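Closing statement on the adenosine-5'-triphosphate sub-project.
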Amino acid sequence: MLDGTVPALKLRGLVKRFDAKLAVGGVDLDVPTGSFYGLLGPNGAGKTTCLSMAVGLLRPSQGRAYVLGHDVWADPVEAKRRLGVLPDSVRMFDRLSGPELLAYQGLLRGMPPDLIETRAGELLDVLGLADAGRTLVVDYSAGMKKKIGLACALLHAPRLLVLDEPFESVDPVAGSLIRDILHRYVETGGTVIFSSHVMEVVEKICTHVAILADGRIKAVGTLNEVRAGRDLEDVFVEVVGGRVATGEELTWL
Ligand SMILES: Nc1ncnc2c1ncn2[C@@H]1O[C@H](COP(=O)(O)OP(=O)(O)OP(=O)(O)O)[C@@H](O)[C@H]1O
């Protein structure tokens, strides 16, 4: 469904400094509408920092982010209306039950209560969270927290989903379910960008990939362009410059 019009997400010159630490060192990225975009990178590469700036959760030191042409920082209402976000778990209001959290999200979005109730019920059902009842989200397992976070991101039917490690901590069944839901979402005109370490998932579902290391984009393009006929994992290790064990380390183990 790539339509070649305004990118769903456009990042220009994004920089983030934490005191002396340069976490993101100037990122430019175009996420085409209708793409399923994987943002790969090793631990500490700057993925979360980059996505947090892209969605208006963290103010950039420099640079701009646009959601479907709307500047996230200058025009936040229009940008956020079109945006669903799965942040890292620290940012969730987790002293609520799943249905309460969804109701809270829906009301913040200005949705009518009956629409919230219908959609929340469906989302909890599809994601296998209906049985959790009144359990507070803080007491959910890590995988359940991912799923309720995804439900919150989907509730207002956004045009762009930005997901921080949606496949982390979820079991294979839940992972496959999330993949199916996201696939359907992209097939019906939505756009997804997500961060991940899981090469198989990225290789299986993404149309586009960017590899981030040391706060900079090291490789970017369609999956086939970046892979260039090789395993994505080999490309990743080469681009990122992974350390290879010589067998001489940890000899005391
Ligand atoms: N609030 C902060 N204060 C200081 N340094 C930070 C802060 N947030 C992130 N950093 C640093 O910025 C760098 C990038 O972190 P970030 O969390 O964006 O990486 P990541 O690619 O998401 O990593 P991971 O895959 O391990 O989650 C790291 O060196 C991290 O220590």
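Residues 89-157 form one domain. With this model delivered, the sub-project is considered complete and its resources will be redirected to Aim 3.
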